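#onboarding

Welcome to the new folks! Below is a worked example of what a typical request in this channel looks like: someone posts a single protein sequence, and someone else replies with the predicted structure as tokens. Don't worry about understanding the tokens yet, we'll cover that in week two.

Example request:
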Amino acid sequence: MSKKKKFNDRPFPYHQEIEFEISTLTNLGLGLGRVPVPATAGDPPDPRSEGGWVVMVPFALPGERVRARVYRNHKNYSEADLVEVLAPSPDRVAPPCPYFGSCGGCQYQHLAYASQLSWKRRQVSELLNHMAGIEFPVDPVIGSPREFGYRSKITPHFGRPRGLVPDAGSGIPASDLTPLHFPIGFLRQGSRFDLVDVQRCQIATDAINAKLVEARARAREQAAAGMFPRGGTILLRDAGGVVATDSSAIVTEEISVPRTAAGGEGRLRLRFLARDFFQNNPFILPAFVRHVISQAAAGGARFLVDAYCGSGLFALGAAPDFQRVAGVEISETSVAFACENAAANGIGNAAFLAAQAGAIFAGLDFPPAETVVIIDPPRKGCDDSFLRQLFAFAPRTVVYVSCDPATQMRDLRLFVGAGYGLSRVQPFDLFPQTRHLECVITLTLPS
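Example response:
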């Protein structure tokens, strides 16, 4: 049996309580402050503590004086739990969710929404400067029309049920046992395994929360029948008020999209599997898609490539503004639906391919100087192979959509090295009350 790793007690002993002021928020949503650390007798001053030793505390806000309890010391910073807010920020508000602070899903329910948007804009600016080495104005974050009740997909999960017990006082025979109560919800703040039992999620739609009651009860019944010996996940996808719980169910979303060339708006109906990727805030989605399409169409290019196209949201929304559109996606089911969606919406100038995103550039006959590429990669960003092929193709404009500005700004350095210039940075808050956001950057090659 391996010995438990010994706690590193420098610069703070385990569970030492310290008081200090929070100066900023990290892009992980943690409050960050600096604490003076005196040199240990006989040791030279540690250069890492010049200006104060960094301590990170969840649920603490800039400008607040807090008392925190240290639980981990790293090489150049410490982590601590919030014990007490001694002097609260004027931006602090009462979180409406009873699970806030224990559930790890939300980081900002205690922060006024206008301030959430302001801090997210600042964090994009800092990432742009620190990770890409670029000073560039970031547009104000476009906020969600709904601050709560916006999320159209959640996936609460549960671990292996630990046992069975009869209902108290029910008088039922031992053969009709019901499962011992086990949590169905989301990871506890700061934990990789411990779950918080969530009966209602404040950021999910009302339709999802109504269905969640039934889904939780069914999961417990199925667990009693031995269906989940290792635990499981519940899927709830709200599409237009209809909630699917079967991952293979076909759902339909309808959104308004711009008609840049002709003017006005159009309606786009998209069908896809409940388990497949689709943006999870339908209330901000029209403004979000409108911006991406308008950036793609702004230069008058005749051709569009939508890499990571999913079921065709950007490709089909933008198709009326381009002569030809090509979409590529690794998910074969998503491509099949993209083709069906093109036909159902009467769009005949879009073709879709199931392949790695970089594969489309090899046989593409679009002239690069007349082509715009939209990319919306997963959270990890673009892989090297894709970027090499993209830069070799050299489209004149790239609209890069990302749910993780940190990996986006990492990739931006490579775009700059390939000769692209940054022309716009526009964040969208698709995820109110959390540290997450979408960021759309527009890049162009000089003509």
